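F.,

This is the one I mentioned.
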């Protein structure tokens, strides 16, 4: 008598491949809105990370990440936060530093999950993560204005990051292809629905920077 082979559990990567092959036209993830002000006037990245971690069940105060886990490096804004998120004169941090920040928190909690750099992914590929239940931490601009690029650059692992004065970081937790909208938890404005083409343009022009955790 032949014995049936039990189905092996799908890894997150396998699940994402299956979703990508049959992507739903709309998907959303419940997330609690956290506004960065007044405590963190330039702390959009740590607040976006806080919201992402809370979707995983972690209970965090708004300033926990900035106080206890955020990596600081005013000499390289790619690998650490330049300045202080508690001050209006603070600058920001890009994916390498925020990934290290997230993984510092996750390792302390003995989590198997990891923050992963998906920078360079096509905008359409971001839908796959959302449909899989993984909100996307995405870099864009404040109030979705045109980026105000400077001549400042930071380097990390062969990649160059250009600073722009209205750098901003948000949590993407939903999309609707029929309505042509992206649902964003914006640490400055609250929950907003933005035109997909507008969001994609800003994602592309500011360097296609994004993170997921799984």
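My design for it:
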């Amino acid at each position: 008598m032949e014995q049936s082979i039990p189905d092996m559990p799908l890894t997150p990567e396998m699940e994402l491949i299956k979703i990508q092959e049959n992507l739903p036209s709309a998907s959303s993830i419940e997330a609690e809105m956290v506004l960065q002000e007044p405590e963190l006037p330039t702390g959009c990245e740590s607040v976006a990370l806080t919201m992402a971690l809370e979707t995983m069940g972690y209970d965090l105060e708004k300033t926990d990440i900035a106080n206890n886990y955020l990596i600081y490096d005013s000499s390289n804004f790619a690998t650490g936060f330049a300045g202080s998120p508690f001050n209006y004169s603070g600058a920001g941090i890009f994916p390498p530093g925020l990934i290290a920040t997230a993984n510092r928190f996750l390792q302390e909690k003995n989590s198997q999950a990891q923050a992963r750099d998906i920078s360079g992914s096509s905008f359409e590929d971001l839908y796959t993560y959302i449909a899989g239940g993984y909100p996307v931490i995405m870099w864009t601009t404040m109030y979705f204005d045109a980026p105000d690029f400077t001549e400042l650059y930071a380097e990390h692992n062969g990649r160059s990051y250009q600073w722009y004065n209205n750098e901003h970081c948000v949590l993407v937790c939903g999309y609707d292809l029929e309505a042509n909208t992206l649902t964003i938890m914006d640490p400055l404005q609250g929950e907003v629905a933005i035109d997909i083409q507008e969001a994609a343009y800003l994602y592309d022009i500011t360097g296609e920077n994004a993170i997921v955790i799984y």
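Helices lie at 12-21, 44-55, 64-68, 95-108, 123-131, 196-205.

Talk soon.
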